Each structure stands twice: as C-alpha cells, then as structure tokens.
Amino acid sequence: VMMMMMMIRRVSTTSSPSATAFGSFMKWSFKSSHFHGESLDSSVSPLLIPGVHVFHCPDVVGIVAKLSDCIAAKGGNILGYDVFVPENKNVFYSRSEFIFDPVKWPRSQMGEDFETIARKFNAMSSVVRVPSLDPKYKIALLLSKQDHCLVEMLHKWQDGKLPVDITCVISNHERAPNTHIMRFLQRHGISYHYLPTTDQNKIEEEILELVKDTDFIVLARYMQVLSGNFLKGYGKDVINIHHGLLPSFKGRSPAKQVERVSHRDNLRSFVQKSEDLEKKCLMKAIKSYCELRILPYGTYKTVVF
C-alpha cells in the first residue's frame, strides 16, 4: 500500500476555519502524543453532539490542562486528543474531539470560551467546529477533461458522505447537456460554467467572481496552473490532486507508474488504477480538511492529525 499525498495551497491567514494558513502537503514532521476513546463517528447519546477544536500557540506549560478543563467544566467529554510539539521549536499544536450537551453549553458560548483561552496563550489559531450545528463548507469544483474525480465527489456528496455544499462546477471543457454529469448537476441545482481558456487568457477574473462566496476550491483534475494573483485574489484554500504529488507517480506518463501491478495488467488497467488512487486521495483530503485534521507548520509543511 503506497502512501498518498495531496496539496493544499494557502495564501492568507485569519481566525476562521477556511482561512487558516496552510502550506503545501509536500512533507510533514510528526511527533504526536495522543489518547483516544471513541471516534466522532461513533453513536452517542441523542442529547450529546460531537465537536472538534484545533489550537496553535507558543508552547508553554498548562495548555492541555486548560483546554481539557474548559470542556469538562461545561459537562463535555473528550473522545480523542492529539498533541504535536516539534523538537527545538517553541510551538504547540493540538486537536481535540469531544461530545457535549448544546443546552448546557450553547454554541455561541463555546466559541467565547475557547477564544478566552486563545487570548491567554497568545494563540496563532483557535478553531472550533460543531458539524451538526455549523454551516457546511461551501466549495467550488474546477475540472478539465477527465471526469473521474468529479463523478466520485458528486456521488459521495449525494450519499451524504462529503460534508460540503457544492455551489458550482467550473470547467475549461464543454460538456453535452444530455450527459450523466450534466443531468446530475441540473437535477440537484448545481450550476455548470464552461470557461474556455487559452495560453494568453486563463479566465481567472471570471473564475474569481464565481467562487468569491466559497470557503475553499477543489481542483478535481483541473489541468491549468492558477497564478499567484489568482491565489492572492481568492485568499482562501485550494485543494489539488495531481500525480506529481503522489510518491509513485513521478515524472511523465503517470498511468504507467501506479501501485502494485502484475503481468496481467495493461495500460488500460494502469489508467484505471491511477484514477482510483486519485479519487481516493482527493476524497480523503477533503474529508480531512473539513474535520480540521490539517494544520500549518512553517511555510511548506503541515501537521496532519
């Protein structure tokens, strides 16, 4: 089983979950302490709902105790807690999963409580998310000719396994109105925008207008390079899947360099395997992002919980 990597491009920093500074998913340093109970996907009491909190601040004594006390004082129960403290770096990262009673601990009060702790420890980032109460992330999908990543995303979204709202699909290739994808988009009220590009005109201003109200963009095999001006103009995260980011796919002809193969494979089966890997990797990236499992570490690294 090969280890797969995806890239999340980041250009600005704020305190919101969709505007936390993220670097490329190129490599990361990991020395994580953790303890776990049940996962957030486990069934819990109908009175209790799950939440997640991520924290990034200078490393000092007492951070874990203060965060744990905050949750416990409101009747919450921690299901899992991960900590990452890099060697020889005065920095602390944590991610906690917990369940709580929203009647005893209202969502607005929760935000204020964690913000108080953030101020106490001069936190660079403190983000709390309650999936059942908070709005879903709004995303736009960009793609070119290949449909496999888009189809996977649409079906996962339809089945409720992708915790996002898809606002629109943008492509530099036209698709016939009677195709499966176009019928699906029309049936679910998702707009499709055909914006043909040239070497001289990448149509970036038009794309920026379409995605201005989204929380992040997904490049579902969009075979165009986004400029620095576009990334600065958008100012939020862009998740990309590309064979150059997967360890087994270096260089040209990525379909000829896929996972484990045998003498029974041919180019057609190679292509199928490479597409399957791309779909799986992209879905995992989006799910991890929405669950606040990815935190920035320096300029070109990330911590992955």
TrEMBL record:
Assigned keywords, A-Z: Hydrolase, One-carbon metabolism
Supply the Pfam families for this chain: Formyl_trans_N (PF00551)
InterPro entries hit by this protein? ACT-like_dom_sf, ACT_dom, Formyl_transf_N, Formyl_transf_N_sf, PurU, PurU_ACT
Q: What are the ACT domain coordinates in residue numbering?
A: 52-135
Instruction: Note the SUPFAM superfamilies from the entry.
Output: ACT-like, Formyltransferase
Asked whether the UniProt record includes Hydrolase among its keywords, one would answer yes
Record PANTHER family: FORMYLTETRAHYDROFOLATE DEFORMYLASE, FORMYLTETRAHYDROFOLATE DEFORMYLASE 2, MITOCHONDRIAL
Protein name, UniProt field: ACT domain-containing protein
